[in-house]
Amino acid sequence: MHYFILACICILGAMLQATIGFGFPVFAMIFLVMLFPFATAVTITQFAGLLGVGYFFLKYRNHVHWKVLFPFLIPAMALGAFLTWYSMSIPVAGLKICLGLVLIAIALLLMFGRRSISVKPSWRTGSLLGAISGLLNGLFAVGGPPVALYLLPATDDTISYIASANAYFFLFKLVSLPIRFSQGAIATEHLGYLFVSLLSMTVGTLIGDRIMRSLRKALLERLVYLFVAFSGVVIMLQEVL
Predict the structure, then answer these.
(1) How far is residue 93's CA from residue 175's CA, in Å, rounded to a whole number?
(2) Fewest CB atoms less than 10 Å from the CB: which of 13, 27, 135, 205?
(3) Across all residues in the chain, what is the average pLDDT?
(4) How far apart, in whole angstroms, are the C-alpha atoms of residue 8 and residue 11?
(5) DSSP class of 142
(6) Is the CB of residue 111 less than 8 Å from the CB of residue 225?
(7) How far, in whole angstroms, is CA 174 from its chain's centroid?
(8) Is pLDDT above 80 for 202?
(9) pLDDT by residue (tens digit) across 119-177?
(10) Is this structure's pTM higher than 0.70?
């Protein structure tokens, strides 16, 4: 039953990730923390997403906006790698509630006041949001919302946005996963779950790829902002309840 539930979570989560460019970790963690210890759930989530983000990165690599991405990538990788290693010793319950409130506020502001807000792909903006993403990825493995908030207005079309976002996720996972494995988050009995998660993510990614290519940029933006708000609600409820 655990394998079946994991497969369903990964297929649906991969479709979500492929469609809006992020979201699988938040979606998966809602359910996986009920099946596995927290550190194991985080590691399975990040490992499962490796194939999906690698697929989009390689397939659309010519559409990656590297000049836009680099200011974001550098602080995100540096801070994220350190906090991934340090996260096991940090009490994060209160911080997660604050994170949830911030995500909801950002999503509402962008949904209803985005005409007056301009997120420009500058080194300052990229470094700030990259640091926030590294913080969220290192502590909670949910660093997607800042990626979307930075890259959506900075890219020309849906494919460029998806390609650039998945380039970041792929590179971050290559750094963070060895750290999590070295911390003993995965035991021998979990290896089967890793295999099932990869296989299921492949199916969901291929389906989501077809959906993503038919989305208009305006609809994509609304879906992203709604899911950012949803992420905030879920993160808070996990701690409050």
Answers:
(1) 25
(2) 135
(3) 80
(4) 5
(5) -
(6) yes
(7) 14
(8) yes
(9) 667 888 899 999 988 988 887 777 777 888 888 888 878 889 889 999 999 999 999 88
(10) yes
Residue 137 token pair: 């990825």
Handedness of CA 171, 51, 7, 162 (dihedral sign): positive
* Cβ contact 167:61 at 8 Å: yes
Q: Are 162 and 220 in contact (CB under 8 A)?
A: no
Name the H helices within the chain.
2-20, 24-32, 38-59, 66-86, 93-113, 123-140, 144-151, 158-182, 191-212, 217-240
Q: State the DSSP H helix or E strand holding residue 23, giving kind and residue range, or none if neither.
A: none
How far is residue 22 from each of residues 15, 73, 133, 168, 209, measured CA to CA in Å? Answer: 10, 16, 12, 11, 13
For the chain, the farthest-separated pair of C-alpha atoms sits apart, in whole angstroms, at: 52
What's the confidence (pLDDT) of residue 69?
Answer: 93
